[in-house]
């Protein structure tokens, strides 16, 4: 069992990063879970993950909270699972009583829920616990009762543990064939799971099992498999394998190979002070030197082996030590000492045989019972102790009367069952009729509801279209009318000859400003109305950003000169992937805004750069800036506008159009501004076609 727990620890470390991510994910799910039963289920997943990583303290905290919530909800599945994991943790902490109580509680709940897999998992865990405590016969019975269901469901992790422990249990009751069978099954599953450490442990156990059957070539084959595995360079593996492999070659009198592996094993175990494996090396080296006539060296090694065997209470190796010492002293003609060794040998052998016989006796007694892990041992014992009483005529008569009575009761129950069944069938038919009627009503209600929703959606759409129309007429009748009226006024004065040449020249900038304003207003109105009608479709392509800047600067050069604004062009040749015409609209609007809110002597700076594979364009001005309160109103669908530094008017549509056009091209627009310092508008666009 210790090897299996070590294996789990190794696996947990290897998968630590992914498990940490999974823990974080489950914790977030738990925090946002609304339904209480779902909270319990998510908490159980966390508990399972924490248990698998041996984080028992955190697991217990979740167990306590889940247990409270499950009891409040009367959620039997949750209570069963919580009791099961609590029992597993008690078992890992060697708290046998609490572990068994927890297993029994969870099994009772699983039975109520008809959860066959849950019952099988609990029986398997009880079996492993009993095997771990040395109760091999009882552990076998529980584990075997669970195997069939676990195999049917292909629960590989549970099966891997169960097979390994069944192999250990069968070996300890001298059922070597069965032990080999289950060990091979464990190795097969470990290969499926790519569990290298588990495979090595199974191969080591198989080698020992074949060695116990004196199939030494098979044993050598499995030990060599371990040495050829991925982590064969590990000192811990070689320390364990070399002494045993050397011992197997010794059985064939292949002294060269035996000495080669035993010397390697001696050096490794001596350096690492691994007394258990060092004891095996010393006994095997003692036997090797004994067979080759190096008696002094053999005696030294065997004496040291005897001391370690007594210290570790390793009776198997101590028995071997007594046998080899008897042979050594017999060769040296020290027959009195050889007689002492022989007496020690048979005393210990009889003790071990007695223990083995007791285990076999318990196994045979348990084997006589049915494979039902819920048997009560004391009840079974009391039933077995009842002696049959002698049969006579009175007893036979009484038995017949009892049989007739039971027969009568049986027929009465059968008649009652028929009546009840008829009644239940009628209820069932009536209920089905009511359910069918209810379903028809529900279907009709759903259809009516869908029709209402469609009508509401259509009404909402018409209202939106109507609002767009109202806004459009409002802007056209107010702002566009003012600009056109102003232009018409200039033209009328010119026609009447009311203006001199000098006065006309002075008014040309204002006329140009009004014409530009009307042009930009019409431009924005057209695009805004198209966006509101959902008819804007981008046609992206790769284009040079600097070219767009050059074109748009030409349109505002005269206005900038008239207003006394300086333009700083820091743009460079770079490409963006977007709809060029839409980008031109955005640049024209942003330049117009910068000009509108700049005073004489201010500066407008345009630039672009590359960041994380995107093209970022910026248009900065040293104008009046934007207050924090007004920043929140920008880019909204509602119109928001303020007068420029020369009382220039606007529609409030420009920035909302910019935002929509940029987002249609998978981009982003934002602004940074400080009042009385200036504003900088940023546009971020992709440099290539975005992946889906």
Automatic annotation (TrEMBL):
CDD domains: HisKA. It comes from the Bacteria. Residues 372-394 are annotated as: Disordered. The keyword Transferase applies. InterPro entries: BphY/WalK/GraS-like (IPR050351), HATPase_C_sf (IPR036890), HATPase_dom (IPR003594), His_kinase_dom (IPR005467), HisK_dim/P_dom (IPR003661), HisK_dim/P_sf (IPR036097), Sig_transdc_His_kin-like_C (IPR004358), TPR-like_helical_dom_sf (IPR011990). Its EC number is 2.7.13.3. The chain crosses the membrane at residues 408-429. Residues 378-388 have a biased composition (Basic and acidic residues). The keyword Thylakoid does not apply. It catalyses: ATP + protein L-histidine = ADP + protein N-phospho-L-histidine. Residues 475-689 form the Histidine kinase domain. Pfam families: HATPase_c (PF02518). Keywords: ATP-binding, Kinase, Membrane, Nucleotide-binding, Phosphoprotein, Transferase, Transmembrane, Transmembrane helix, Two-component regulatory system. GO terms for molecular function: kinase activity. This is histidine kinase. It comes from Hwangdonia seohaensis.
